[in-house]
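pasting for ref
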Amino acid sequence: MLKRDEWLPLARKLDWNYSYVQEKDVFPEEMSGSPWLSHEEWKEWDEPYRTSYREYVTLQHEKDAAVIAVRDAVGRVEDFKKLSAPWVNALKFYSATFPLAEFAAVVGNLRAGRFGRDSAWRTMSTFGALDEFRHTQIPLLLMHDLIRWDKQFDWTHKFYHTNNWVAIAARHLTDELLLAANPIEFAIGTNFVFETGFTNLQFVGLSSLSHLVGDRMFEKMITSIQTDEARHAQIGRPVLATVLKHDPEYAQYLLDKWFWRSWLFFSVLTGFSMDYLTPLAQRPCSFKEFMEEWIVKQYLGTLEEFGMKKPWYWDIFLKSLDSYHHMVYASAYTHRATVWFDMVVPGPEERAWLRRKYPAYWDQLDPVWERITERWENGDAGVEWNTHGATPVGFCNLCQLVLCGGTPTQNTANTLDYNGCKYIFCSEPCRWIFMKEPERYASHKDVVQRILTGEAPANLLELTRKYFNLTQDVWGKDVYGGEYPWLKRKSTVQ
């Protein structure tokens, strides 16, 4: 029998010349992506893992067995009840936004499995699709048993099937990146930027954080998934190298576009968890410090390796590290009934910690929490609406997130007139992306536009119940109902 190193190169590279059709008929540009190049230009495509199917199945079986073993040991409802309440709600947030996005990534990988321009690329994309099936199934399995304890965990499967404002924003990102992208844009936007630049490294950070808070089940789940991400994240590097050689301007655009869009998504998802929903004693660093150490440093190093420029908006991005997720969190807390997880008010010790970690703008952000604290002090415990917004807020016409760019004293929202319509954006980069591909984004309606056209109710309570599909027993509340040991209530229920 041939040894592995003798047969694997033959099995990986199975491209051939076509005798009765043209190469462009087999790989049309509309499906394969731009720039369209002959296979001669792609034949050097390579990645370091070079996994065979037998090796893949054996390793995945071992990882699945390890996850099931941990679930049997520490994955019961009583184990989750021991965790801090804020962290459990971080888990609800992650569990909803994560699995069905991974299912969408199955489609993107399978498209590359058919229309990727090299056989080794197609093989690795097929493994990537199997990975994403696994990443879908694991959280759905692990969170299902928790529904009988807390109905908010039902959103693990339900989230992307609703018109909740967070789901609209998440779908706007994942549908374009994972479902609609051709293999080239998918490889650069997903495999290179989204996975190598964000998910891979953030999963490492979240695994460490889970360990510190005592959530062994989430730690094992994230670790198991991250090992897959590390492998198929490598697909993007050789694709980027080839595109960069033939169309460097397009390569730069794809990097800049998807870095910004990925940043907005993860700043909310991970920023909330690290800076607000993790108990203070278990926070090893701030979200900003994590980003600077693991994302910014790594991403800039990769750009230098490829001889590429930093995004033109880099200074805007660095400023947003100090404020963006704080702004969105304050807005989301004020409208917490419109989400499916509970949230907390940062207390005096946490606010002092946040001031140390975010000295640039915290003096502007802190009065928001002073005002919310005052309203809780002047109200009764458990009376949510005394500290809750009463009207819908505005949303960005590109990222579909709330208009929370900048700071409380200098919002970065800006507008654009296009084809007789006025559009509003949370930031200059979102406006720039829209202007580069207006035909892709102009027809999408945010929540406010749906209200104005009569598709959604304008009353916030009706919007929450009928359009966001949140009933009172499920919608988000204050984790402690306003009962904080540091809060001095000025009235009590008689």
